[in-house]
Amino acid sequence: MAQIEVTLADEQRAALEELARIRNVPVAELVKKGIEEVLRSARGRRDPETIRRALEVVGKFNSGLGDLAERHDDYLAEAYEE
Predict the structure, then answer these.
(1) Per the domain annotation, does 79 fall within a domain?
(2) Which domain holds residue 39?
(3) What contacts 8, CB < 8 A, 6 or more positions away?
(4) FRET pair for 58, CA 20 to 30 Å: which of 12, 68, 69, 73?
(5) pLDDT by residue (tens digit) across 31-71?
(6) In this structure, which long-range contacts are made by residues 14-22, counting pairs with CB atoms below 8 Å and at least 24 apart in sequence?
(7) What is the DSSP string of 19-49?
Protein backbone atom coordinates (compact mmCIF):
# COMPACT_ATOMS: atom_id res chain seq x y z
CA MET A 1 0.00 0.00 0.00
CA ALA A 2 1.31 3.44 -0.88
CA GLN A 3 1.01 6.67 1.05
CA ILE A 4 0.48 10.05 -0.54
CA GLU A 5 0.25 13.56 0.82
CA VAL A 6 -2.79 15.66 -0.03
CA THR A 7 -3.37 19.30 0.83
CA LEU A 8 -6.96 20.17 1.70
CA ALA A 9 -8.67 23.47 2.28
CA ASP A 10 -9.51 24.04 5.94
CA GLU A 11 -13.22 23.69 5.13
CA GLN A 12 -12.65 20.34 3.40
CA ARG A 13 -10.64 19.01 6.32
CA ALA A 14 -13.26 20.14 8.82
CA ALA A 15 -16.09 18.64 6.78
CA LEU A 16 -14.25 15.32 6.44
CA GLU A 17 -13.49 15.20 10.15
CA GLU A 18 -17.12 15.93 11.00
CA LEU A 19 -18.41 13.26 8.61
CA ALA A 20 -15.88 10.76 9.96
CA ARG A 21 -17.05 11.53 13.50
CA ILE A 22 -20.71 11.10 12.53
CA ARG A 23 -20.02 7.82 10.74
CA ASN A 24 -17.55 6.69 13.39
CA VAL A 25 -14.85 5.90 10.83
CA PRO A 26 -11.35 7.26 10.21
CA VAL A 27 -10.94 10.17 7.80
CA ALA A 28 -8.63 7.94 5.74
CA GLU A 29 -11.53 5.55 5.10
CA LEU A 30 -13.67 8.37 3.71
CA VAL A 31 -10.81 9.53 1.49
CA LYS A 32 -10.24 6.00 0.15
CA LYS A 33 -13.96 5.56 -0.55
CA GLY A 34 -14.05 8.90 -2.35
CA ILE A 35 -11.10 7.95 -4.52
CA GLU A 36 -12.66 4.59 -5.34
CA GLU A 37 -15.91 6.29 -6.35
CA VAL A 38 -14.08 8.64 -8.72
CA LEU A 39 -12.18 5.72 -10.26
CA ARG A 40 -15.35 3.59 -10.58
CA SER A 41 -17.14 6.46 -12.30
CA ALA A 42 -14.27 7.01 -14.74
CA ARG A 43 -14.08 3.30 -15.55
CA GLY A 44 -17.83 3.10 -16.09
CA ARG A 45 -17.75 5.68 -18.85
CA ARG A 46 -15.10 3.74 -20.76
CA ASP A 47 -16.26 0.22 -19.93
CA PRO A 48 -17.14 -1.52 -23.22
CA GLU A 49 -20.02 -3.44 -21.63
CA THR A 50 -21.56 -0.25 -20.24
CA ILE A 51 -21.22 1.46 -23.63
CA ARG A 52 -22.72 -1.55 -25.42
CA ARG A 53 -25.71 -1.65 -23.06
CA ALA A 54 -26.30 2.09 -23.43
CA LEU A 55 -26.19 1.87 -27.21
CA GLU A 56 -28.67 -1.02 -27.17
CA VAL A 57 -31.44 1.26 -25.94
CA VAL A 58 -30.84 4.04 -28.45
CA GLY A 59 -33.97 4.44 -30.56
CA LYS A 60 -36.02 1.93 -28.52
CA PHE A 61 -38.37 4.53 -27.09
CA ASN A 62 -40.73 6.86 -28.90
CA SER A 63 -42.63 9.66 -27.20
CA GLY A 64 -44.84 10.24 -30.20
CA LEU A 65 -44.01 13.93 -29.93
CA GLY A 66 -42.15 15.33 -32.90
CA ASP A 67 -41.07 18.46 -31.05
CA LEU A 68 -40.02 16.94 -27.72
CA ALA A 69 -36.40 18.08 -28.06
CA GLU A 70 -37.48 21.71 -28.52
CA ARG A 71 -40.41 21.78 -26.08
CA HIS A 72 -39.29 19.40 -23.33
CA ASP A 73 -39.66 22.10 -20.65
CA ASP A 74 -43.24 22.81 -21.75
CA TYR A 75 -44.17 19.13 -21.64
CA LEU A 76 -42.58 18.70 -18.23
CA ALA A 77 -44.46 21.72 -16.86
CA GLU A 78 -47.73 20.34 -18.26
CA ALA A 79 -47.09 16.96 -16.65
CA TYR A 80 -46.58 18.56 -13.23
CA GLU A 81 -49.74 20.67 -13.55
CA GLU A 82 -51.95 17.59 -13.73
Answers:
(1) no
(2) 1-60
(3) 16
(4) 73
(5) 999 999 999 888 777 788 888 988 999 989 888 888 988 99
(6) none
(7) HHHHHTS-HHHHHHHHHHHHHHHHHHHH-HH
